[in-house]
């Protein structure tokens, strides 16, 4: 049973895209050389911004709800496991349904594989591999008190709204503490390159 | 003497590679290692965990290696080690895959065009004997100085100490230098000029709580990834972050102020910023008056840098320069970091001095939350330069031209001071001496100049002129392909010793496995050579600890004083910051357990140079402002070559790639070099992302795929330098060097770029890492 007071926190603003998390995930004993997580380059042509995509471990996992084979299980301590091999039919329903973009179907294995929060490590009180090695600590594993002390400018949240769907998760995302105001109206659906002020080299003449 | 080593006649080039490059690659790699067998099996438990450090960059992260059956089968984070607390970059995560590698050299080799891959295995003793015979032959024919020695800053401090001693005492040659010449010498020279001591001033923990951090020319995220967390922790505690770089690097993405400086214009930027500070009286005048000298001359120089001119020369918007000055100078505390971005210049020392002037003008030294330092690039960038493989230094950061220093070290080594050679020349100048026929024989260890030196087609031509070359390495690196004899050295995990990391913290590397086959620990190979040369005196150590004990004595009384450091103390305290004294420098009385010196220049601190007159390492105890003069880079952009070329690293590769181009998962992460360019430049050139593009300078051309991103100045391209042969960025770079530090100008030269006609010939035959 995973110690209940230990929590997983993600702060994408810290991520430097080094892939240490992805490389380390392959080293977790039960992952057998495969990474269960991935790193997204949001739009490399326009920005160096990257986001480590680990499972958010939803309280009511959409991936499990849409799975026609009932292959995705949530443990009593709130960890949503990778698909069970005998059941998974690699249909990809979970890939489409997950609002966070977490699951990936490994075609060669006909299996959905995703982050299990290094269950073999976290269930005995160790930290997950990715959060241990992460050089920017965009991925952090510890207590609520620790994160509060270490990150006075940030505050954790685990409640998300996607359209009409409200999701609470086992994993927290860090936000700036206090009211957040955007400097310019931001259309998050626009390509990064088209957003105002996106080119820091606009003043440079060729 | 074997027939193949007899010189066939004048003008014959024996050190030409024995067979076609491709045939060598087929036999000796780089091939890739992957997680297989015990490294993948969950049922295999390690026999033990060995606490040691990463073998790559200057951060020297603590790591535990899993060992079973004399093989490193994985790692476990070492969360107690204070610098990195378990954090590792991808290189650290996959470092263990360099062991048990198919390319590993398991025997001595001799050049043999008839052998598979151009090299035939020979008995280790024969390799030593032949190397010694050739060294003797050349030295009797041409003198002691006909042999050159090239060392490296990834070696333990014990090995670098022994190598310096070997060159001077056994070979009696002045010609030794090392690849730290390509790394931190500009910072070292600048630090000595400003502070009288060459070390980072504060531990990284001092960043947490500072008000502003200025990072000049350091892609922290990719070159010193663990430092990222220090930046972000500082930010969480209120620090604002300024990044000065021609590329919008990952840490620049969320920084408070980005200074998109034109390559090679850093000294101008620092002068312009200091001018604004002077105009607004944003100075710590009390500190300047009490603890420094030379401010007035610097202030007079800065008057020549009004904001309009600074903005014009540096390519940084005027408003940003003003903001930088205000943000930096009006904060109560601040920390300034820099790296190769400002140091890799023919004006590198001036750039460093310019940044130090900003630190001195604000009095940001000798107290918590304030500090300054270079982020060293190589594992032992710090320790590797302190104890004797640098051409002008003796152990303890002593000066080889200083009679008193020479006497002391000669005494430790038991030689007549007159027999101790004088200063040699820098690593690049050694190649010029090879070219001129002055140096005829070469011994190299831990250095791959055919990839890492600028204008490396010249380096190749020099290697071909050598009469004899012996390389010590664990893989057949690109330079070692030119060797007559290759001696199989040791991997990091096969030996123990100390390393001094980025903060000046001496740490201990521990042995996890034995050397395989005939491979030997490098210090044993050096001693075997000394023995075969019939000069074993001083080269009869039985273990690294004994070398360290002698090094403690040799460093004693020097600026880099290690005399109070022991292996036990390092392990107990998880690192000791030098200077760490065995005797109180004030009284000469023995000190039982000196705590080391994490923070330099604290008020009232005593050092053996100032003797109480002040905290800095000059007789008057004062730091020095130095004129930091902007000069236009050599081979700057112009009509013929209108685009800036700058070079650097990617996070998954390290230096010349000797190790990291052999590790499968790291190669997969960033397989091949690409030419990074801004979409506006790409559009003008008609190049799309992933198109083949050719970059050309006065020295060479390279064809690589383009990477079109708007995170680089539109007038600049970037190429990472970790690859060899036709993919080597250093075919293009210029061998201009700083007149003081002799660091090469890797970070700027003029180039032109065009869309390539098609894929280069290598694309069809080489694997990405080759």
What's this model, at a glance?
The complex is a heterodimer of chains A (206) and B (770). Chain A has 206 residues and is an alpha+beta fold. Chain A has helices at 20-25, 62-66, 93-97, 119-122, 129-133, 144-150, and strands spanning 7-10, 38-41, 50-53, 104-106, 111-113, 139-142, 154-162, 165-176.
Q: Top keywords for this entry?
A:
heterodimer, A: alpha+beta, four-stranded mixed sheet, two-stranded antiparallel sheet, 6 helices, B: alpha/beta, Phosphorylase Kinase, domain 1, Rossmann fold, Dimethylsulfoxide Reductase, domain 2, seven-stranded mixed sheet, six-stranded mixed sheet, 25 helices, disordered N terminus
What does this structure look like?
The complex is a heterodimer of chains A (206) and B (770). By secondary structure, chain A is an alpha+beta fold. Helix content of chain A is 16%, strand content 21%. Chain B is of the alpha/beta class and 770 residues long. Helix content of chain B is 29%, strand content 16%. In chain B, the strands form seven sheets. A seven-stranded mixed sheet of chain B has the order 5-4-18-17-16-6-7, with helices on both faces. Chain B has a six-stranded mixed sheet with strand order 24-26-25-28-23-27.
* CATH fold title of chain A: Alpha-Beta Plaits
Largest sheet of chain B: 7 strands, mixed
What is the domain total for the residues of chain B?
4
Number of strands of chain B: 28
Cα radius of gyration of chain B in angstroms:
25 Å
Major sheet characteristics of chain A: 4 strands, mixed
Give the domain tally of chain A. Answer: 1
Identify the quaternary structure here. heterodimer
Query: Approximately how much beta-strand content do the residues of chain B carry?
Result: 15-25%
Task: Return Rg of chain A in Å.
Answer: 18 Å
The dominant shape of chain A is globular
Strand arrangement within the widest β-sheet of chain A reads 6-1-8-7
